[in-house]
Design goal:
With 108 residues, this protein is α+β, with helices and mostly antiparallel strands. It contains 1 helix and 5 strands. The protein has a 5-stranded antiparallel beta sheet. A hairpin with a 2-residue loop joins strand 2 and strand 3. The longest helix is centred in the C-terminal third of the chain and has 29 residues.
């Protein structure tokens, strides 16, 4: 027999969490919880952000605030910054020698 257990939310109101916003993790706080069918949604407030950024998310975007998860946050940020720096350099290098807007090698 399958015993139905009442599913409990993974996080609590006022619990501090890490939450994905785009590719990065940010410190946040769960301010409300609502049950949607068989799962829960959490209203997240990102610490230090205007409340206009508050949003409802599922627990797939949230992590407990543990040392291991703070390390994951740091690694994601470092990786993102290195990638952004690389993209900026690539764009800069790609523009070299394009002054004047015409192709100097054309014979038309």
């Amino acid at each position: 027999h399958f015993i139905k257990r009442k599913m409990q939310p993974k996080y609590k109101v006022d619990e501090k969490v890490l939450c994905y916003h785009g590719p990065l993790l940010y410190e946040a706080k769960c301010t409300k919880i609502k049950k949607e069918g068989s799962s829960y949604s959490y209203l997240i407030h990102y610490q230090g952000w205007n409340k206009n950024w508050d949003e409802w998310v599922n627990d797939g975007r949230m992590l407990k605030q543990t040392q291991e998860n703070f390390e994951k946050q740091r690694k994601l940020l470092n990786s993102h910054m290195a990638q952004a720096k690389g993209n900026k350099k690539a764009r800069k290098d790609g523009r070299k020698g394009t002054k004047g807007g015409s192709d100097s090698n054309s014979n038309s």
